[in-house]
């Protein structure tokens, strides 16, 4: 058996190794581990099911526990696991027991923490990746004095202990207590009286953005992160939440402007990088714009007989694009701050129909006399009606696309201005030429 | 004299009253005040110069001080001052002495606080308007125990005391001390050893956004607000800072989409409101679009002889608009997060020239064979060269306009997509038709 494991470790055949370990007793696994170096111990431990891992960890004596923790943090172990393909790694790394996870993360420098969070099996962009491990939890049975005493003499950042996790003997999160409450309370008050039990908390696998938005909306200084069994792992502090929201806004702004977000600051990104991020979308947009070429070709006869119609094409597409992008940006923002949800789609459509129609009437009435005077009244009528039609249509398209995007799991910001305006361009031209053909029938 | 003041108060001639008060002695002013009702006391006090106000306040006994504070908070007084025209009010209301201002704000409900901040003379959108008055300041001479004792038994929110202001006997801010430092320090440690003297602070008249961004960038839990003499007034807490930054982002997103920001959530705003916020900009944009009509008219002969040129007009303006909006959104965002400043304008231009040229070459090379095959090679060449020219030009325009906007004090977000694309439309058409005239000379 021992030989088998040696070989499997040698070959890095972690999948088979995991199956082998399933059939062994807790004691046998612990024995196997004690005979190996720290990196190998870590590999074996990490491949155990969660329940088994807890049992093994508890079976080990304190020295071996410390040794294992060292192994789990070692660069050799990280190198080994991080060279596995992403899928394999995600499949192999189950959730680490909370007590071990929290101890592993504590006191690590931030850059190592990112790698470690990956090793702990928390998915990319998850709350587990950004949580701050907090070395101090308050026992639910403590008094105010006992809790405060626990903090004395330690190097603790203000934002890490402004809110303290209160846990029971199994590390289950039972509530949070504010440092201010501990400080201002009367002597002898039990922590259980001071704590807030209806506390917000997220799982380590939850999306970072969801966690960050919760911090913002509930005005929290810190949000507890727990594992699937509700055991306390760490905190997401308000400064980290702000940073995530800021990154998120940057991504939205780039997408809204029609390009992929940059990973580094504008002035330090290479020119080639800038071009690449934008080029992808510009290509998509120019291919979509082929639609407009088709529409224009289709109405070429109409254009040839009334050349003045061409004169207004940029104004028609421009106005459609602008009205559409206004609607899209309102709805994208409303989605981002949770004011609108995909199920509100009919409400949004009905609003946008009315807003677009109002805008169209307003602008149409304004431009009609000018165009009628300079060209002739029929051209004026074509333009006025086109503006009404295109504003209404553009508002509907602009309002609906972000909602559909959210529904199908695409970032709604992608459907801001450039994409919307390119889509509205072609359909807007159809509206324009159709109206022209009817009104100018005698001239064609 | 007393009669004169009666009459001036009656007539609400605060300007003359202010001049009258300048000529009176401190004792005379205090005497005048003691003979009047609380609202009138408040008016007189509020019209005094700052130095005089401090003197008068100190001259009053404790009972009269309390009476005056009551008057300053009274609805009658607020009504009186708030009915004055804005300019008058701003001119009349000098900065309130810090000790009085802080005492006035404390314990007020949030809605009353907004009005009070206005009465205190802090301009709209200023830090003073959103600061939280903090009833507890720590004396620089205190020990850790004395400071903690001061907090005992009080109803204090966590975020209001996570960071505490340390002041001297004249209420001058000398530093801040973290609650965590007080809690974790050894017995008897003087506050002066625990406090951070190189602390960030803003004046009450500073822009809210500047203050909020400082909170974010320096990862603060609270930012002290001081008056012009550096006396402590209150704190801007991290949750308020987050809210301001969020509003600011919402404004930017709306402006980037080409409309004025809504004051209420999308679904609760009236349709008319939505239309009004967008209509203003849509009008500006359609008027600007008249430029494109002019350009098209100017090249009408060219269009009439080669009708196929009209076919590509939406693609030309669309691509220009998209490239411009990509550049604009990058630079607007970089400005918002302080990665780029107006003085970087030449760096930005040089980057955008290269990015735009690269994008143009890439797209131009891609579309040339298709157009050459379907139409003819000269049309293909016109389009390819136009795309190179228009991408380069659009990137420059999109990159530069937000910087100019910031320089002249306009929100750079205004120059995102719709405005940039409308401006690029007209100039892009000039590029298009000029290239066409040269290459297609034989066909015209």
TrEMBL record, chains A, B:
CDD domains: CBS_pair_Mg_transporter (cd04606). GO terms for cellular component: plasma membrane. Keywords: CBS domain, Cell membrane, Magnesium, Membrane, Metal-binding, Transmembrane, Transmembrane helix, Transport. It is found in: Cell membrane; Membrane. The chain crosses the membrane at residues 280-299, 355-375, 382-405, 417-440. It is a multi-pass membrane protein. Residues 131-193, 195-251 form the CBS domain. InterPro entries: CBS_dom, CBS_dom_sf, Mg_transptr_MgtE_intracell_dom, MgtE_N_sf, MgtE_transporter, SLC41_membr_dom, SLC41_membr_dom_sf. One of its GO terms (molecular function) is metal ion binding. Homodimer. Acts as a magnesium transporter. This is Magnesium transporter MgtE. It comes from Corynebacterium kalidii. The lineage of its organism: Bacteria, Bacillati, Actinomycetota, Actinomycetes, Mycobacteriales. The gene is mgtE.
């Amino acid at each position: 058996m021992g030989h088998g494991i040696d070989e499997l470790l040698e070959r890095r055949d972690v999948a088979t190794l995991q199956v082998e370990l399933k059939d062994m007793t807790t004691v046998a696994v612990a024995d196997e581990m004690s005979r190996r170096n720290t990196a190998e111990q870590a590999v074996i431990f990490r491949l155990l099911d969660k329940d088994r891992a807890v049992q093994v960890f508890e079976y080990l004596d304190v020295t071996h526990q410390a040794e294992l923790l060292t192994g789990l943090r070692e660069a050799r172990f990280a190198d080994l696991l991080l060279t596995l393909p992403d899928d394999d790694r995600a499949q192999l790394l189950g959730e680490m027991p909370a007590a071990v996870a929290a101890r592993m993360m504590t006191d690590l420098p931030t850059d190592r923490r990112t790698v470690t969070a990956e090793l702990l099996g928390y998915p990319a962009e998850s709350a587990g990746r950004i949580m701050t491990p907090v070395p101090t939890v308050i026992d639910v049975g403590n008094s105010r004095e006992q809790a405060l005493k626990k903090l004395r003499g330690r190097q603790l950042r203000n934002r890490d202990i402004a809110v303290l996790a209160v846990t029971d003997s199994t590390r289950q999160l039972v509530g949070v207590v504010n440092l201010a409450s501990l400080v201002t309370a009367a002597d002898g008050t039990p922590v259980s009286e001071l704590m807030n039990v209806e506390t917000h908390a997220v799982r380590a696998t939850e999306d970072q953005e969801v966690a960050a938005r919760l911090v913002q909306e509930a005005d929290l200084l810190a949000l507890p992160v727990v594992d699937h069994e509700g055991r306390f792992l760490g905190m997401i502090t308000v400064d980290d939440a702000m940073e995530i929201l800021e990154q998120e806004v940057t991504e939205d702004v780039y997408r809204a402007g029609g390009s992929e977000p940059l990973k580094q600051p504008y002035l330090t990104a290479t020119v080639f990088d800038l071009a690449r991020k934008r080029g992808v979308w510009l290509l998509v947009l120019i291919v979509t714009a082929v639609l407009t070429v088709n529409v224009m070709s289709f109405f070429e006869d109409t254009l040839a007989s009334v050349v003045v119609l061409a004169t207004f094409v940029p104004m028609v597409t421009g106005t459609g694009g602008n009205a559409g992008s206004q609607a899209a940006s309102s709805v994208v923002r409303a989605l981002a701050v949770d004011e609108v949800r995909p199920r509100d789609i009919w409400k949004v459509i009905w609003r946008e129909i009315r807003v677009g129609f109002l805008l169209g009437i307003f602008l149409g009435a304004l431009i009609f006399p000018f165009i009628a005077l300079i060209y002739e009244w029929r051209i004026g009528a074509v333009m006025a009606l086109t503006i009404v039609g295109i504003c209404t249509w553009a508002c509907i398209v602009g309002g609906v696309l972000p909602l559909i995007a959210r529904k199908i799991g695409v970032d709604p910001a992608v459907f801001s201005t450039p994409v919307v305006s390119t889509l509205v361009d072609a359909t807007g031209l159809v509206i324009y030429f159709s109206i022209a053909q009817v009104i100018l029938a005698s001239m064609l």
